[in-house]
Task: structure prediction
Amino acid sequence: MLRAGQARPVRLGRPRWFPARRGNPNLSGGPPTVTDMTTTAEHIAPLAPLGPPVPVDLPAPVDLPAPVLGSLSPSRAADFMSCPLRYRFRVVDRLPEAPSPAATRGTVVHAVLERLFDLPSAERTLPAAAAMVEPEWQRLLAAEPELGALFADDPRARDSWLASAGQLLAGYFELEDPCRLEPAERETLVEAVLDSGLRLRGYVDRLDRTPGGDLRVVDYKTGSSPGEAFEARAMFQMRFYALVLWRTRGVIPRQLALLYLGDRVTLRYTPDEADLRATERKVTALWAAIERAAALGDWRPRRSRLCDWCDHQARCPEFGGTPPPLPAGLPPLAGVADVAVTVCEPEG
Result:
């Protein structure tokens, strides 16, 4: 017997079949048979017919972008391939580098060639380009006053330096006739995130587009062309750009062109899908190597002719130096995202 206010307990175990109730012969007291269930179903009133379906506006599916695990530009990729320690100094430690006359001249020449195409086609002449050198230098100097220290001790060196920029522009006019060109884009930032989460990004000097929609990727180099054995390595930057353009625009560039103004040589290459897939595998493997170096703190120096232009010889074991301690308190890969997407190197 239950006392007042006491809840009935729940019994767990085998189900019990209750005896038949009066007035309902279908409840036999045992497990229901098919006949019982059918008979019972006959006594249920039929459901009312459904009306026409009501349209429901569902939100469109959204493609979520892949999470970005790291970022890489052609310049920083080249740094790691040539010397992992240089990559570390530039990207992880972010050590300042003194400006050099060669790199600064390259920046000025690139700016002149970009602005040259603002002129009407008939006015794109060598004298017009040469006249832009001084204004572009002053524009750069206003943005980065520390560059004035390059020629503070010898004003005549500045005049010689400006004249050398004019010689590079003369080299450009031997390679191309800008009066016959109408670039589609100049100094364009291109970037794409691969399925692996690696973001590729960089600035393309110039994109030309034919009436049929074909793309030509052009990059200016103010140094001299590489030897034949190093041409493929030099073209890696252009394949990098082609890969990004293919991933973002669905078009494989028809031609990649490196214009070396120093010795007035043009390197051309026609990529295909196999080339770009191989480039994607290469940059993915390169990023994996960067991740390993960051996890282990193992940034090894690699001596080469590029050491002549390196600003970190005093810190490099190859030259008797000692690298500074790695930045403290950073989780793995913190700080190794490539933020320096546009750097004009001394070699071009």
